[in-house]
Design a protein that fits this description.
By secondary structure, this protein is an alpha/beta fold. 45% of the residues lie in helices and 14% in strands. Helix 11 (263-274) links the parallel strand 10 and strand 11 (280-283). Keywords: ATP-binding, DNA-binding, Helicase, Hydrolase, Isomerase, Metal-binding, Nucleotide-binding.
Length: 632
């Protein structure tokens, strides 16, 4: 029986049909066309490259900046018996070497790569020898300097075109303005324009925006009224704890989350929220990427996001089950002012970038002319404190240093301990006989972990310690000794961000930085902030404002945002007040005071407003200080 897209979908995922736009994207990919797919958060982007790749010979290379998401997708594919691996920061050179070999000589169908890996000539050369059927570029807006989350490492992706000129690109993103749509296709060298997009409107989302002096009080009322689980986004780590504590003190099961927590702690907090043990998670924007929780009923922002793209992404984590959900943005005038002032700290001057580079090289004790290719664990918070640098400016300076290929920043990722036997079974058996103290440990490894002769496998030292009746420290020492005996290779767990120097150190006075690019980015950032102001101030419809920002021409109100609901309420209230005025005045003429006091619908100022409109249109008459309804 010939395999089709639908049969693959049923075989591996058990779905009977595709979601909107998925089938059309898959069709374009199978025709070998470069394709840019615009799909909202939670729209099922991954299936758009997984299904066509399974229908084709060879391997699909997936580029993603989100290591946690890469790991989740690899795990999910493996659960479906689909061979997949990921290569990211923190892996040893030998691990990477084995993984790339498996992609060339093994049966791997999906290779997930962080874009920074393409800085390596070795990785590029190994990709050249792979039989690639598709390049899938996730979060494709990162390639555009006009995108909200520009990543300099994405500019390396054009090298994939040089390695396999006839392999199609599938670029995927949830947020892209018309300018970014054009830029993505140009940067990836599309042979011809080809964009498939789903409407940016989310029919089930009722966007709400409130200028609120008491944001905490309004947040609490919203949460208690909405029911269900939700996310509260704040700007910094300190706020996550303060707001979570406030909610707990008011009877709401809540927890906090930010990137400064250890990975095991973050995973536990995320799992508790996903399983509804925690009702509300208070987080920085480090939370949410790749989380597939369908029943989020509200997403509340206590601070204004940096861009509408970021807001659309974060707000879009609500209501993925297509049921009614509410993104709520609470702000004050001071928040608006801070947003504009923050632009200055995001664009440091040339001298600051020079000094940041100088301190960075000194921090890692790199001499002039040395350092190319070296990678270090890197804590930017500790670094900025040590050298008394403003954190926001330092982060921006590092990004501009990366853009000009001086260094590469690699996000923190938890990688468990790994182990691989470096000898064959017979030689290992001889070692067990001659070194009896290691016999139980070797047996435990063989029983617990398959494939340990072929590649590095994740191991749990605590589990091994229980099996062999020793302490964790003793087991780790034995694993290290086995490495010294050249029986195996042990790699300890890691959970740190990393920084790699791409070029040898130069004297900071000879440092080249493209200041014209920085000026253009600053002007673009100012445009983004103005767009947020427009969204806050619009009197029309929140969904229309978002759609038009993303280049979607529409004038149809959503009917569910705060502006539409208020407008509908006022319209209905207007009709009721008019009807009541008519009924009252048809019985007898009244003075203004009598009439307003007699009415029961609406507040006094609203009643007066409607009465003035009726006077202007001569539906109500005023004579001798008495109001009457004309009878014809």
């Amino acid at each position: 029986m010939e395999k089709t897209s639908l049969s693959i979908l049923k075989q591996y995922w058990g779905y009977e049909k595709f979601r909107p736009l998925q089938e059309e994207i898959i069709h374009e990919v199978l025709l070998g066309k470069d394709t840019l797919a615009l799909m909202p958060t939670g729209g099922g982007k991954s299936l758009c490259f997984q299904v066509p790749s399974l229908l084709s010979d060879g391997i699909c290379i997936v580029i993603s900046p989100l290591i946690a998401l890469m790991k989740d997708q690899v795990e999910n594919l493996r659960k479906r018996n689909i061979p997949a691996i990921a290569i990211f920061s923190g892996m040893s050179a030998r691990e990477v070497d084995i993984a790339l070999d498996n992609c060339i000589f093994g049966n791997i169908k999906f290779l997930y790569l962080a874009p920074e890996r393409l800085y390596s000539d070795l990785v590029q050369e190994r990709i050249r020898h792979m039989k690639v059927n598709l390049f899938a570029i996730d979060e494709a807006h990162c390639i555009s300097q006009w995108g909200y989350d520009f990543r300099p490492s994405y500019l390396e992706l054009i090298k994939l075109r040089e390695l396999h000129s006839n392999v199609p690109f599938l670029a995927l993103t949830a947020t892209a303005t018309p300018r970014v749509v054009t830029d993505i296709q140009e940067k990836l060298g599309f042979k011809e324009e080809n964009v498939l997009s789903k409407s940016f409107r989310r029919e089930n989302l009722g966007y709400m925006v409130f200028n609120e002096e008491n944001k905490m009080g309004r947040m609490l009322r919203v949460i208690k009224k909405m029911g269900g689980t939700g996310i509260v986004y704040v700007r910094n780590r300190r706020e996550t704890q303060e707001v979570a504590r406030y909610l707990l003190n008011h009877g709401v099961p809540a927890d906090f989350y930010h990137a400064g927590l250890e990975m095991s702690v973050r995973n536990k907090k995320q799992e508790d929220w996903t399983k509804n043990h925690t009702r509300v998670i208070v987080a920085t924007n480090a939370f949410g990427m790749g989380i597939d929780k369908a029943d989020v009923r509200f997403v509340i922002h206590l601070d204004i996001p940096d861009s509408l793209e970021a807001y659309y992404q974060e707000a879009g984590r609500a209501g993925r089950d297509e049921k009614k959900a509410y993104p709520v943005l609470l702000y004050q005038q001071a928040d608006r002012d801070d947003l504009w002032e923050n632009i200055e700290s995001s664009f440091p001057d040339f001298a600051f970038i020079q000094h940041c580079y100088h301190y960075l090289c000194n921090h890692f004790q790199i001499a002039v002319g040395a350092g190319q290719g070296l990678t270090f664990d890197f804590d930017v918070v500790d670094f900025s404190k040590k050298y008394k640098l403003e954190l926001a400016k330092t982060l921006s300076a590092l990004k501009f240093l990366e853009r000009d290929k001086w260094l590469s920043l690699l996000e923190a990722v938890y990688i468990p301990a790994r182990f691989k036997f470096e000898v064959g079974f017979q030689e290992l058996y001889k070692f067990q006989v001659s070194s009896v103290a290691y016999d139980n440990l070797v047996k435990a490894i063989l029983r617990l972990y398959g494939g340990v002769f072929d590649y590095f496998v994740p191991i749990n030292e605590f589990e091994l310690a229980r099996k062999v009746g020793k302490s964790v420290d003793e087991v780790i020492h034995m694993l290290k000794m086995m490495q010294q005996y050249e029986m195996g290779t042990y790699l300890g767990k890691t959970d740190k961000p990393q920084l790699q120097f791409l070029q040898a150190r130069v004297d900071y006075k000879n440092l080249y930085i493209d200041m014209q690019f920085i000026a253009a980015r600053k002007a673009f950032k100012q445009e983004q902030v103005k767009a947020i102001y427009h969204y806050l101030d619009t009197k029309d419809c929140r969904s229309i404002a978002l759609q038009q920002y993303f280049g979607e021409d529409t004038k149809e109100p959503c009917g569910v945002c705060d502006l539409c609901v208020t407008r509908d309420f006022r319209k209905n209230e207007h009709k009721k007040i008019v009807k009541e005025i008519q009924q009252v005045l048809l019985s007898r003429a009244m003075t203004l005071h009598e009439l307003i006091d007699t009415l029961t619908v609406g507040k006094e100022d609203r009643r007066l407003e409607v009465l003035r409109e009726l006077l202007d249109t001569e539906q109500v008459l005023l004579k001798d200080n008495l109001y009457s309804w004309p009878v014809f």
